Amino acid sequence: MHARILLSLLVLGGIALDLPAQRRRPPTGRPAPAAPDNQPAPPPAASLDRSKVKAWTLYKGADLHLGTGEVLRRGELLVGDDKIFAIGTGLDLPEGGKVIECAGRVISPGFVAVRALGLGQPSGNPGKAADGVNPFDPTIKMALAAGITSYGAIFEGGTASPDGRSAVLKLAFGDLKGMVLQEDSVLQMRVPLNPQQWQTLRDQVKKVQDHKKAVAEHAAKKDNTPAPKPPAGTEKLLRVIDREARLWIGAAGAYDNDAIREALEVARLLDVGVVLVEPLTAWSIPDEVAATGSMAIVNPRQVADPDPGRKDSTGSNLAQCRILSETGVAVAVTTPRGGFAGGPSIGTGGIMGQDLNTPHIDAAFAVRGGMDNREALRTLTLDAARILGAESRIGSLEVGKDADLLILDGDPLHYRTFVQIAVVNGKVVYEKDKEPFYSHIGR
Amino acid sequence: MVNGAPLLAAGLGLAALVAAQGTPAAGAKDSPRVLAVLAERFLTVSGDPVDHGVMLVQGGKIQAIGPRRSVAIPAGAEVLDLEDRFVCPGFVDLHHHVSAGGGDINDMVHPINAELRTLDAVKPSAAAIRRTAAGGVTTTCFIPGSGTSLGGFGVLLKMTGGRLEDMVIRELGAMKVAQGFNPERPSGDLGATRMGTSHLLHHTLLQGKAYAEAWRAHEEGRGPKPELRPDLEQLRRVFERKVPVLIHTAGARDIVATARMFQDVYGLWMILSHGCFDGWWAATAVAKRQTPVNLGPRNYQFTRDGRFQGIPQAYWDAGCRDLSLNTDAPVVAAEQLFLQASMAVRLGLPHEVALRALTLTPAKQVGVGDRVGSLEVGKDADFLVTAGDPLDPRHGIERVYIEGRLIHMQGQGDVR
Amino acid sequence: MNRTSLLAATALAALPLAAAAQERPVAIQNVRILTLEGAPIERGTVVLRGGKIEAVGREVTVPAGARIEDGKGGTVMPGLVSAWFRIEQAGPRTQELPGRGGRRGPRGPMPTPGPSATPVNLAASKAAASLYANQEVFADLLGLGVTTLGYAPSGQGFPGRGAVLNPAGRTAAALTVDDAAFVLVAPAANTRAKELLKGELDKAAKVLAARKAPPPASQPATAPGSQPAGAPASQPAAPAAPPAQAPQGRPGPAPAGTPGAPQGGSQPQPQKDPNVEVLADLLDGKARAFLEVGSANDLIHYLDAVGSVRFPTVVIAARGGGSEGRLDEVLDQVKELKAPVLLPTALPTAPFTRDLVNQARRLHDAGIEVGFHLGNSKEGVRQLFFRLMELVRCGLPAEAALRGVTLAPAKMLGLDRSLGSLKVGKDADLLLFSGDPLDPASRLVKVWHKGQEVKKDPTR
Asked: Is residue B250 helix, strand or coil?
């Protein structure tokens, strides 16, 4: 990896880095199966129009941890309004632009919490999330202090079929429009299903397939008759099958291999990669997970003992993130919950290291289990964004993506590292020295 | 990968390894062979780190430690070359509740339970014990809960599993007292308020004191033989200062009240445990009395002016030097004791203080500083191996040794 | 505004005048006069006659036969105006309400426009209709110097119209000076509430366009001030939008017959929704809105819902602080509304801290006119001057603090021609303090309401 980046620098010299070229690298471990859900969507570079930019900012001199697994030493990052326009060295700053010197600092993409409570998300049922968010929620500032710039707000769901409401929200403090990235890109269900629920799901899938066939035939006819509508009750399933929404699958009981295999059966039935939500033992059958193109949300600190009554029972493994990732399964980390743990919220209850005040500690535990330090940053950035279906906008420092970034005083995953400045949509929304939380801690 | 573990056949499960009694491991109690541990850095805690050093272990004890040029490896020693790894003393957690495998720590009928002890509840086969050890915690004080004012006596254990006799360092590890909130009995008993709980404790302590004094008088030939009081026998050891009182107490008011009662009035050997919420406001009073403090599981207070105030750092800054950290497991998972120190450092505690607060300080607080807590000649060979700073969560604990015996290897056995 | 309220206003004006005309003028002498329009007058005299202020000044000729009131070096200031007052409904509720579509509402124990969890358009309904007069609070407040009340309905969306009350009244009719003083707009951060606001205002824009269209033209015109769906909120108001500046007086009554007047032609008129008609008046600048927001968040969701639609507005900040932002965090949006703001007097704390924020000073410094909630009970109003003192101590100019409970709320209610300052011709509503009103040692000595001395709240 080092060599590759060095090579890029040598070849590119003063021009912007060819980031997609860097990303095309062989996955570590065995080759990933060729499921389309395993490939992150590229950022929409076409939307960049230099002539419309009002304010330019050039971040200079920091080590850029791109979120893709790559690091660019002492690089430069050009932001126009709310988008990243260029990454490289010796970049030209358009006239009137501002330079932010970041020598000795590290810049990382803002962290993406796949799931969080509070942080300005609507309480109750507001209708559309965009009509209920509270961009003045003071916990937003606290989450920014923890490095979180966007998160999944998951309101409902978790029945026997794809269902629920969700939103990917950004921590654009005070900015209503800037807060909502997308709605309902995540649907949820849970396993196990009883035989009747399986039958219902199969029937629904059949209806969706018939509907899709009818739509294709209608399109081929090219007459002016109205297109067929999806059968009632299958709209959400259709969105999953059409890859408009990610399907997260949790487990009602223990998320052991039986439950994981049932979730993977759903993936095969729908012919999409799904997201396993905190599977316990996926590390013991990583190939089966990878074969479906599925991804996983993992709490690396989750522990469970093997079931002594079963020979094939394995229990938890600190190495789960590494094993899944090496097998080609994208992983996002999440925070311990249940019992005394803080869960996916910003707490003030007094135990640091156990909630979303320290998301980087969750990723650090992935490293503890053997994951490469740079790869592990993906569990908080690009791969977390993929699990939310938002990777074309957030999760990495790439040209065309949203300017959501952190200026850090050390390696993103070091336990002593603090966010000095957080930027969302190109705007500075948090400065350590100006907020009460950590300004008393010098570094 | 690390070389030099000849006893560890590839793929051999750890449980099997521990059970294998055929050839005793070099360095272990029951083996005459010397184990020579080579590593990049030994964090001795008692002194400066030893870089590029060697540590000789025999019969479960540290025989020598120093730079490789000054410590000769005896012929026939088994060499464990840990290459660029760090070695640090096993961690000590004085506030631990899970060595019974969960629960079994609150006997709630009476508010005062001076006759109870967790020794009777330890479950040596509990996975929780193996998991605790996997987190580098080699010694725990497994104490009763805070459901009653005097919960009973905690036992001081090595996290080896196996036979209980081999685990126990001291049967009466510490007497557990709980102050404020948790032990209050709101359902109509005496002890619904701080007045009531204090009265119950005073009542018991006065009896215990008189009982202990009567025995001492008898033993010194100054009095008749007292009638045996099973309910006060254990308490007698506290007044003989053979056993400390570990007191669950938090908040400035309760902390000062606790130090006043146990240190000033009864002159007992006490360890102030938790010390959280606004307890750090009383840190100066604690520092003045040189009270041993054992902080956790809460490691910060979110102050009324919006600060994440590190609690250990606040005590340190107020002059408390006798400072250790705990998990209150299961509140913080037992295997995450190190993270309590990491977070203390994040919030301002000096790194070397934080490492000492996991090792030598708690060992001394509970009276076993001569046995565990640092890498010194003559001490138990309880140590762990990491790829670097043991407080960095990214550095997994690759191996854990207790008394020279390999107890845990990362990724092996049933606790992964 | 409609004929009923005009009648009520006239009736009210007539009653005390009739009584006062027989009375002797009163000359309050030897007082410091805080006119709140210009510098204070030292050792001046105020003359009251016929319920009005006849003279104010240093050198004032006391009319022959006037009763002399020695102020003993105290201070006089205008009576307090509470622009935002709510009380629990009490007593029998037998008033009838206009129903939707112009039909008569149900009779008997009735649905009042009370607090509603669901957003509604009941803009034509009137809070005054459910007013229960037989409550001590009116006299209590008057005794504490509150000489005018703006009485607000409750609920989400457009829950109804507020009233101006005369606290000296003893019957609902005598209490009610104007039963259509303002239209309450109560936004909320949810889709239903936002869609209701937008949908009803769109309807109102169409009604207004129809009203303004020349009679022969029948094609529906896009209403001025309304934006097509999806128009960005940041667009400037359409050129034909109603005046954004709150008018400096009471909005004139709608031209007689406008709402219901047939517009010629033989086509059947669609049934009019009186609630939408009221909103059309609002868009036309003929009525004013009280925009009740709990927070900065409510305000930005409101702006998100209504886009660039603007009408004469007073922003009522129902809460000072909390976890949804303060109005001083959205100064640009408040300024853009060109609306005065009515704030609670308590200093909010900044989130997570004990730092007090003088929101009033921040808004005042930004050039926004600020008034204050007086409180809904005598207990609340008794705190008022202590709270004002605190605001002044924390940087709000004393003049702004006192105007914020007199002239500013009078303007908000559109009553500043007759209330809110000590000026010749204005209503003789004034308070005599033993010293400066913002001095904790000074005491309320006397209250005059429409020239009448009222029974002051007893303090011993």
From this structure: coil
> Mutate which of B300, B302, B305 to test chain C, going by most C C-beta atoms within 10 A?
B305
Contacts of B304 in chain C (CB under 8 A): 353-354
C433: CATH: 2.30.40.10
Non-local (6+) Cβ contacts of B173 within 8 A are B141, B142, B143, B153, B154, B155, B156, B157, B243, B366
The single residue listed with the structure tokens 């009490």 is C90
Tally Cβ neighbours within 10 Å of residue B315. Answer: 26
Q: Residue C451 sits in which domain range?
A: 1-78+420-460
Is the model's pLDDT at A42 over the cut of 70? no
Rg of chain A on CA atoms, in Å: 22
pLDDT in tens, A388-433: 999 999 999 999 999 999 999 999 999 999 999 999 999 999 999 9
Q: How far is CA C12 from CA B172, C86, C176, in A?
A: 88, 21, 8
Which one has a higher pLDDT value, B24 or A117? A117
Tens of pLDDT, residues A107-116: 999 999 999 9
Structure tokens at B314: 């606040």
Q: Check whether residue C295 and residue C384 sit in a common domain.
A: yes
What's residue C459's pLDDT?
A: 64
Residues in chain C, pLDDT under 70: 1-22, 88-116, 216-270, 459-460
Per-residue buried b or exposed e for A234-255, using 16+ beta carbons within 10 Å of the residue's own CB: bebbbbbbeeebbbbbbbeeeb
Domains of chain B, each with CATH number or no CATH? 14-89+375-409 (2.30.40.10), 91-365 (3.20.20.140)
**Is any Cβ of chain B less than 8 angstroms from the Cβ of C351?**
yes
How many alpha carbons fall within 13 Å on the CB side of residue C114?
Answer: 10
Most B-contacting residue of C323, C349, C353 (CB-CB within 10 A), to test interface: C353
The token pair at C151 is 């009485």
Collect all residues of chain A within an 8 Å Cβ-Cβ radius of residue C294: none
Provide CB contacts within 8 A for B55, sequence distance 6+: B36, B37, B39, B42, B62, B64, B65, B87, B375, B381, B383
* E strand map for B256-356: 270-274, 293-295, 300-302, 308-310, 323-325
* Phi, psi (degrees; rounded to nearest 5) at C97: -120, 150
A305 touching B (Cβ < 8 Å): yes
CATH number of the domain enclosing C404: 3.20.20.140
pLDDT tens by residue, C283-295: 999 999 999 999 9
What are the beta bridge partners of residue C454? Answer: C447
Structure-block tokens of residue C45: 């005299």
CB-CB contact of A366 with A379 (8 Å): yes
The reply to whether B305 touches chain C by the CB within 8 Å rule is yes
Q: What pLDDT is attached to residue A39?
A: 62
Q: Rg for chain B (alpha carbons), in Å? A: 22
Radius of gyration of chain C (CA): 23
Q: Are residues C296 and C157 in the same domain?
A: yes
B304 touches chain C (CB under 8 A): yes
Judge if C374 and C437 occupy the same domain.
no
Instruction: Please name which of A11, A1, A103, A118 lies closest in space to residue A378, comparing C-alpha atoms.
Output: A1
Domains identified in chain C, total number: 2
Query: What confidence score (pLDDT) does residue B55 get?
Result: 98
Distance from CA of B258 to the nearest CA of C (A): 30
Domains, chain A, with CATH or none: 152-168+181-395 (3.20.20)
List B86's β-bridge partners, or say none.
B41, B386
Q: Write down the pLDDT at residue B20.
A: 45
In B135-193, which ranges are continuous DSSP H helix?
164-167
A306 has a chain B CB within 8 A of its CB: yes
Q: Using CA atoms, how far apart are residues B385 and C139, in angstroms rounded to an integer? A: 81
